[in-house]
Amino acid sequence: MDAPSPDTGRAPAPAERTALRRLIDQAQSAVRAREAALVIIAAIMGVLAGVAASIMSATTQWMHEVLYWLAPGERLSSSPALASPWLILIPAIGGAAMGLIALALKRWRRHPFVDPIEANALHGGRMSLTDSIIVALQTMVSNGFGASLGLEAGYSQIGSGIASRLGLTFKLRRNDLRILVGAGAAAGIGAAFDAPLMGAFYGFEIVIGSYSIPAAAPVLAGTIAAVMTARLLGAHVEPLHMPLDPNLGPVDILPILFLGLAAAAVAIIIMRLVTTVETLFGMSRIPAPLRPMVAGLGIGALALYSPQVLSDGHGALHEQVGSAVTASVAIVFGLKILASALSIGSGFRGGLFFASLFLGALMGKLYGALLAIAFPGFHLDPAVAAVVGMGALAVGVIGGPLTMSFLVLEMTRDISLSGFVMAAAVVTSLTVRETFGYSFSTWRLHLRGETIRGAQDVGWMRDLTVAKMMRTDFPTFPQEGTLDALRARYALGSTRMVVLVTAAGGYGGLLRLSEAYASLNPGDTSVADLATQRDHVLLPAMNVKEAALAFDAAKAEDLAVVDETVNRHLLGLLGESHVLKRYAAELERARRGLGAED
After folding, report:
1. Statement: the pTM of the whole predicted model exceeds 0.85
2. What integer best gives the mean pLDDT of the chain?
3. DSSP helix, strand, coil percent of the chain (3-state; round to 5)
4. What is the spatial distance between Cα 2 and Cα 218, in angstroms, rounded to a whole number?
5. Pairing relation of β-strands 558-562 and 570-575?
């Protein structure tokens, strides 16, 4: 039944519904047909993402001030010490809250949440806005109570969730929806860091998986709109002030490159440690809802030494870059890694984006100090090493060499450092990919059984299944029949391949009709004696890549499709040439979608 109109109190007339439907269809068609319309939608999405990021940032800062007795505007991680020893219980309270949320989700929303990278790689950009809001709220609870994680996962999730909802409303094509989701993640991150270039390349490198001309305008429009909205709302990110003007020469590139190698090693250790902590919690007898609370007690205990281990470390980063290198730097470095691993491994929600920046700065300072001890005549300022290490380690954990290079540039406002940061970032990225193969996001997907190594769209490959490619209008013949009966039913040249079936409708093998006519066996010979490919079959759920591998393993041109491997009820027939043709066509379509051609 139609709802009554709020103005007239009556239900819309059929003519009114038809006109409204026509207007909606025209709007959807215009959006799909015009590139400028996608840019406008991205800009609208950027405004919404900027508002959401500003609210998240302001809310968690308020939570820090209330829960940890901070002065207005004071950063939690920059506090010299906790105001009271009892405050070590705050992360545990937050862990208890996360446990209750987990219990509620287990009952009311059991499916796994999809992040922007997984959405673009496997689902064509389709995400749930409700799920995204829940993830954003979880990251706010985790960060607000002091878990050693950042809000970046929530920023990108809410931005991409808004983008996906808008894109689905306008029924965007798969590639346009992927671009808009990348723009949403870029908008959320860019607004949070007040860094439009970094945000845009976060969308390109980490969420979309490539840079293309068609994607440039929507991503930039969404990111700039989000950043400007956040600035209008009063969001402010203080630039990272360098204590001196860096004086780097060409010879300094060598220790910078070795710093990139060190960052790669530390990044892999961090990712492995997170997995180890998660495994240890899984092996323990601690119920899953209680694990964040137990980890929260540990995080609070670590904060007794220094509050720099709490939250994302934004305030601590500004202090560490310009301060002297002391033994406490190494201690905080180790404690922060442990606190972050405890946070993620126990079930807190959040990201390692900013935590990796802070850890990279500490690592760089230590590297610069050790270099000065080992080679007294060779000078690399620890502050410079901290900035370079900040970008390099973030690349190792998060990925995106250009993303992190632009972030360092926008945070320091010092372009002279950008080339050295980029050199270290490239070394780190290459080393991690060659030795480990994953960033933190894709490593987590790998642990869940996924095989993707980035946000490049491979979902179309999964969607192109054997069931969609097989033919069902194929000739069949009883497996118990004779050659004479087969020749009587099918004239030479009438078909190429005959599928043999059992009396129960099962699969019995394949037989080339030409071979049946060329056979010198007596006419009463069973056709089953000439059957091939009895043991090689395809299943309807196999994707195009799995089917191609099956053809290669069987050394066959045709294979039957059966419902399952036991009873093998015959469903269809599929040829290798058709599989390769469809694969090539879809691959070309994906290439065109990346902007190689219009």
Report:
1. no
2. 85
3. 65, 5, 30
4. 37
5. antiparallel
